[in-house]
Amino acid sequence: MKRTVLRMMDEAADRWGSDPYVLKKADDGWHPYSFIEARRRSREFAAWLLSKEYSKGDRLAILAEGSPEWVMAESGMLCAGCVSVPLSIKLLAEEVPFRLDHSEARAIVATKNQLEKVLGSFPSLERDDVLLIYLDDDPAFARDAAAKRGIGPGRVVGFGEACAAGAAAIAAPGSELAARLDAIAAGAEEDDTVTICYTSGTTGDPKGIMLTHLNYWTNCHDAVELFDGPYHFKTLLILPCDHSFAHTVGLYTALACGISLYFVDSRGGGIATLRNIPINLRESNPTFVFTVPSLSGNFMKKIVSGIEEKGGFVERLFKAGIAAGIAYNGDGYNKPPLDVRLRAFIPHRAAKLLIFDKIKKMIFGNRIRFCVGGGALLDVKQQEFFAAFGCPVFQGYGLTEAAPIISSNASGKGKHKFGTSGLVAPSVECKILREDGTEAAVGENAEIVIRGGNVMKGYYKNPEATAKALRGGWLYTSDLAHYDEDGFLVVVGREKALLIAEDGEKYSPEEIEEAVTFSTDVIDQIMVWCEQRKYVTALVTLDVGKVARLVKAEGTATAEALLERLKDEFAKFRDDPKAKKVQAAWMPAVFQIVPTPFGDKDGTVNSTMKIVRHRIAKVYAELIEYSYTPAGSKTANERNLAALRLLFKLP
């Protein structure tokens, strides 16, 4: 039988039936759609699309927060033989038209939160017949908003309206729509495009990645095998549905394993959504959670800050317990000597029983087993902390072009090692190749090259980029890594993001950034930079709460004194035996303090909260250039002092 997403949907409805698949929060609680109900509603939407003469290969975009309707809208597109173009809600308004025009989307699915952004893009589009399919329950509101912009009501339809019309069309006497939908599912080929996913543009212009039925089938079944079959698990889907990690390991793996997907309550917009995450976590009581380094890092900071506010015995026991847990676990794969584990056992056990388990229950509920991290490199400090805390975060590695999983750490003996990106997925062939095409030795960094059923079909309407990435059946990732002595993949960064010195030498910025943040808690975000200049500079944002407590604890009286203290904190990695080692020539000579965090409003952070290097370089070009002037070449400069005076009200 053909390996398609449509087959997975049918088998999930047969296998899991009335079990809850996707759930949304309403005023009176959580409303579930079972696997059968979700398939039925998807087919109703598909029937409406067919009645409006949408046909195989037509593209429809989605720009919306994750929800059951998001899932059913995309599933309906696939049932009609169409192609989904999932877009990030973090996109700036001016970034939307390119993606709609490039994909030649006939329609876009959107919510109230995204309505102004979407309608605002319509006048800039190449075609004037793009339809808005409105996911929320009040389509009249969307039509009124469209009318104010001169967009006729015929270009706006409610998702509920479309499904109702599709259901009526299927039930009409003599209708052949149900049979036609069955025929589309039976006729779908493994190589048919399912989605066109646009890159976030962290290293340049976005490209449309074509992923097929086989890509998704292969990758989600690899995920099932890596994690020993997470059957009937529950999760709160915090990551956006457009992100390939959530898309594959969330939406599609759920079909294979009967996983229940709760969606964060997004009513009220972005700020309300953030407030709802901790509430929804406790309500959904998940078995596991998808995360990204910035999100798990925020969890860690809040946990530690809460404990430090209590102080006294609780703080001492907590920190002793974490330290003991880190000592007990070793690197997660190679266990430390027995005497080390014996000394660590009692303090770790005491902290677990008295503190850790209670905090875990308060944050996640009483079922949480683990978190799975992706989207960016997860520093060792977080991996060690959460494993000691009793809620391990398993780091993986992938990219959308690989649908996305290439490797992952996982639960189980011999399946995880801190500081690595885990074991390569079962169906993936992965080589580390030097520039001359030979395989690198153990411990030697070179380019990751993979082959398998998860590898993309190519870049949409971009044969040059496709030919560069796909060579002889292999995907050249432009990411750098090595295999360690235990066979784990250790990813160090992107080839395109390399620092370039005056003499042309290159170095991975991620290694430096991880080393700095591993050794200090006061740096919140960091981007190091060197574009054929004399030395490396860094832009940093501060953990304001941590620095404020440091100021209070040490009685720091002036901005000059605080800046000297921050210089010491920044440089801690140089003498930290557990931090990654950075060659002396690549150690940042200066850092500049950015008063406000990098964020999505100016595009310096993408949908998975990963910094967008080229965007930061553009937004803060003048500050980077300042680093290479006489005034800014030392960290003790007037701009840094002004930033500290602004943030901490110091003279």
What does this 3D model show about the protein?
There is one protein chain. This protein is an alpha/beta fold. The protein folds into 3 domains: 5-212, Rossmann fold; 275-495, Rossmann fold; 498-648, ANL, C-terminal domain (GMP Synthetase, Chain A, domain 3, 2-Layer Sandwich). It contains 22 helices and 28 strands. A 5-stranded parallel β-sheet has the order 4-3-5-6-7, with helices on both faces. Strand 6, helix 6 and strand 7 form a beta-alpha-beta unit. Helix 1 crosses helix 10. The longest helix has 27 residues, at 338-364.
- Number of helix segments? 22
Major sheet, described briefly? 5 strands, parallel
Give the beta-strand count: 28
The CATH topology assignment of the largest domain is: Rossmann fold
What value does the average pLDDT take? Answer: 93
Q: Tell me the name of the CATH homologous superfamily of the largest domain.
A: ANL, N-terminal domain
Widest β-sheet, arrangement of strands: 4-3-5-6-7
C-alpha end-to-end distance: 73 Å
Radius of gyration: 25 Å
Pick out the low-confidence regions.
Answer: none
| CATH first level of the largest domain | Alpha Beta
Structural class: alpha/beta
- Domain count: 3
CATH architecture level-2 label of the largest domain: 3-Layer(aba) Sandwich
Percent strand equals 15-25%
Overall spatial form: globular
Q: How helical, in percent, are the residues?
A: 40-55%
